Amino acid sequence: MGPLKTVVLFSMLLDQAFLLTQEHQDLPTEEPVPSLNVKFDPRRMELSWDCKENATYVECVLIHKDEGPICLKLKNKECHCTFQNYPLHKGVTLTVKINTSQKQISEKLVYTNPGGEGTAAQNFSCFIYNVNFMNCTWAKGQAAPDDVQYFLYIQDSKRRGERECPHYVKDSGTHVGCHLKDLSGLSTYTYFLVNGTSQGTGIQFFDSILSLKKIERYSPPSNITVHCNGSHCLIRWGKPRSRRPASDRDFQYQLDIQRPIEVPGDSENKYNFPSPEPRAKHTVKIRTADARDPQWSAWSQPVEFGSEELEASVAHVYVLVVLGTLVCALILVYLFKRFLWRHSFLQPVPGIKDKLNDNHQTDPQIMWEKLAPGAGKVDNEEILTVEEVAEAPASG
Ligand SMILES: *[C@@H]1O[C@H](CO)[C@@H](O)[C@H](O)[C@H]1NC(C)=O
Ligand SMILES: *[C@@H]1O[C@H](CO)[C@@H](O)[C@H](O)[C@H]1NC(C)=O
Ligand SMILES: *[C@@H]1O[C@H](CO)[C@@H](O)[C@H](O)[C@H]1NC(C)=O
Ligand SMILES: *[C@@H]1O[C@H](CO)[C@@H](O)[C@H](O)[C@H]1NC(C)=O
Ligand SMILES: *[C@@H]1O[C@H](CO)[C@@H](O)[C@H](O)[C@H]1NC(C)=O
Ligand SMILES: *[C@@H]1O[C@H](CO)[C@@H](O)[C@H](O)[C@H]1NC(C)=O
Ligand SMILES: *[C@@H]1O[C@H](CO)[C@@H](O)[C@H](O)[C@H]1NC(C)=O
Fold it and tell me: Domain Fibronectin type-III, which positions (predicted)?
């Protein structure tokens, strides 16, 4: 197809091969126009017409809903032109323009997506993870009948045929996702087609061309190591595995050491964390993303560093504090109990206190001497108690 094209206004570096259902081929909605008999083969993205005119100038235009007009000017006036791969599910309008020495002919062809509106799979997306795996998901079209079944076809590079999804993810029997373990042979730009069947209605297809580079989710950085000296901890990690050959600068990293730390890809995959001794136990987690696209990977497994002992001594202090509190509480309880006991002892002898108060004898010494003979059987403890009570009025 190379020599056909003089100018390619919208170059997407797509593969030329194309998936197509039989239905597609049957469907071309051609408007019968007198001179040219334009046909469109969506499988090959080829527009062709009857070669009856002696053209001086030939131009093919594909009007794409998202990409706009894509224009090919043919050098050697052939009677067909091949576009690069574009998604066709929204339909396209194709035009052939021919100048002859006498006239200018222009013929239009409208290509539409067969089937009922709203029956196509929606919210289609795919992502690659762990280098070799791809998951795609989609949802039933809102107008799709209950018995709809969808099928996913993936186009290999170099038109080496299509493959159907090897492992569907189902939702009550309906295919709504696909898991692929083998991505070999897929080109950077890969064509995805989801078509479908139903007893009652025609099901529209959905198609998409995805850049495998753009849908790759990186794995978290591996081989994280931490080496500490008196003042810093040097954290190192390995570049994440990736499908594409990527330089250090294509990555960016985020470290989580109690707080997030951004590290650019060109800093040799290391970070010097200021952490003077004694240092408590820390954990570090790292994740990565493309330098130009902050679609973050999952976090790595956390790696611990810092002293377990410090942690232990902190625990020690804690235990001591708890013990100390307990001892204080016990002492208080003891004192309180003694206070209660003293009260219960004093109850039967209120007379002593009243008598003392009435006599205005507030000197403990005197009280003590006066009471002592009267309370001959009282032991030391009891005497002490009386003495304390006698102090109360003095202070009050
Ligand atoms: C879906 O597309 C594939 C690949 O082009 C084709 O083989 C298959 O027959 C199509 N199925 C339907 C239901 O159109
Ligand atoms: C095209 O050119 C050839 C000779 O160059 C001539 O025989 C033929 O009639 C021309 N056809 C038309 C449609 O003009
Ligand atoms: C082709 O014909 C159209 C209309 O007559 C004219 O505008 C255009 O310049 C022509 N192109 C060439 C390359 O002759
Ligand atoms: C599809 O995506 C749109 C917007 O992203 C959302 O509103 C809608 O609920 C999704 N549909 C399904 C079936 O998931
Ligand atoms: C990909 O899909 C498979 C099959 O449904 C599932 O087991 C796996 O967890 C998915 N992986 C991710 C990363 O979502
Ligand atoms: C620890 O390493 C950092 C950076 O590697 C260095 O600046 C610092 O002087 C070192 N400290 C000690 C105590 O060795
Ligand atoms: C991580 O370590 C393993 C084994 O030590 C090694 O095979 C692998 O290449 C390393 N990965 C990176 C990204 O450095």
Answer: 220-310
